[in-house]
């Protein structure tokens, strides 16, 4: 790059930046997902779990978890030269939900991470995005030792509309996370197109 222009004489591409939220229950893997794919060192706001928080932080099924996000996680990934995603991981506990409105401002779409061991923990996130008409997909984080269920069973259990994508993923794996990010961008774009051109009968 020379004086703001490429060596071939073409002006640099000004990328489109899109905001994606990563939501879900406590301990479902949101921080891990952002860290697995971010091309910058992710911003994390994790604190150690304390005895004072034990009555409100349900660690059933995630007994090995010792920290929790108290504000947000932030990461960035360039999908193409002209497309950059900013990732915002939301805090999972109910006492931090007041931050969701600010984090969701201007979001293109969202990923709701689900753990089949604690599937009910993602109901609040699903309800939040449905009420605000923010397009989302459900990423079933395949934990080691966790039960695997067919997509239709997960859809019924979460009472999801047919147009909401469900994707099996591994929040630790960069390739798996990139696949889910591409999926949420495609879903959000088709959702926006359908709202611009509603089908009339």
Automatic annotation (TrEMBL):
Q: Name one GO molecular function term.
A: GTP binding
Q: Which Gene3D superfamilies match?
A: P-loop containing nucleotide triphosphate hydrolases
Q: Keywords, A to Z?
A: GTP-binding, Hydrolase, Nucleotide-binding
| UniProt keyword Repressor, yes or no | no
Q: Which family does it belong to?
A: Belongs to the GPN-loop GTPase family.
Which PANTHER family does the record cross-reference, listed alphabetically? ATP/GTP-BINDING PROTEIN-RELATED (PTHR42708), GLIDING MOTILITY PROTEIN MGLA (PTHR42708:SF1)
Output this protein's name.
Answer: ATP/GTP-binding protein
State the organism named in the record. Answer: Streptomyces doudnae
């Amino acid at each position: 790059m020379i004086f703001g222009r490429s060596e071939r004489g073409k002006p640099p591409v000004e990328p489109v930046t899109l905001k994606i939220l990563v939501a879900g229950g406590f301990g479902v893997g949101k921080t891990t997902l952002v860290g697995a794919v971010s091309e910058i060192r992710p911003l994390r706001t994790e604190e150690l779990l304390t005895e004072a928080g034990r009555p409100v932080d349900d660690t059933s099924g995630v007994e090995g978890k010792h920290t929790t996000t108290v504000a947000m996680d932030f990461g960035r990934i360039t999908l193409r030269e002209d497309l950059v995603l900013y990732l915002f991981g939301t805090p999972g506990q109910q006492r931090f939900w007041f931050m969701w409105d600010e984090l969701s401002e201007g979001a293109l779409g969202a990923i709701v991470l689900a753990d089949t061991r604690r599937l009910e923990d993602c109901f609040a996130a699903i309800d939040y995005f449905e009420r605000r008409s923010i397009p989302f997909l459900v990423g079933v984080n395949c934990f080691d030792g966790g039960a695997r269920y067919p997509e239709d069973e997960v859809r019924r259990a979460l009472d999801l509309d047919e147009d909401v994508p469900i994707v099996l993923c591994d929040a630790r794996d960069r390739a798996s996370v990139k696949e889910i990010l591409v999926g949420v961008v495609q879903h959000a774009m088709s959702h926006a197109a359908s709202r611009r051109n509603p089908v009339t009968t």
